[in-house]
Design goal:
Layout: H1 5-8, E1 15-17, H2 22-32, E2 36-41, E3 44-50, H3 51-59, H4 70-73, E4 75-76, E5 81-82, H5 87-97, E6 101-106, E7 109-115, H6 116-137
Parallel strand pairs: 1-2, 5-6
Antiparallel strand pairs: 2-3, 3-4, 6-7
Length: 140
């Protein structure tokens, strides 16, 4: 059975306007328990900002998170996939681009996000299913 992006994506994610501050973004991430936000301009996705962006581009450089805008540190644009992208392709895209979050697009809008944790979760489920089949039919 082939799984697609639509089968494993998280439909709950937050966007943040690109003129928001890093302080606001960090507070939003903390309150919803995530390590990334989709950055928007007029509700159109323009990039992504992650906790690593905040650490490496703000904190490590001594920048003021209250004055620094999300647009100054975000990854402009982003690698994305469509809902019908198979999981093996998702993994390849994430590995080739060295990314841990992959937005899923439909009609120019982000409809979900796949994270490396989602990939690990489906891999664990796959291994559990294979193990069950081996135990059930392999010891005859």
């Amino acid at each position: 059975m082939v799984l697609y992006a639509s089968d494993i994506m998280r439909e709950s994610f937050k966007g943040i306007p690109e003129d928001s501050t890093i302080f606001e973004a960090a507070n939003m991430m903390q309150s919803i328990g995530t390590g990334f936000l989709i950055v928007t301009r007029d509700n159109v996705p323009t990039g992504i900002v992650t906790e690593w962006d905040m650490v490496s581009k703000v904190m490590a450089k001594g920048a003021d998170p209250v004055k620094t805008k999300v647009s100054e540190i975000m990854s402009h644009g982003f690698v994305s996939v469509q809902k019908d992208t198979p999981t093996d392709k998702l993994v390849s895209i994430m590995q080739e681009n060295r990314i841990r979050r992959l937005p899923v697009m439909e009609n120019g809008k982000v409809v979900g996000v796949i994270t490396s944790r989602d990939i690990i979760r489906i891999f664990r489920e796959y291994v559990e299913n294979i193990t069950e089949v081996v135990f059930k039919y392999g010891n005859r």
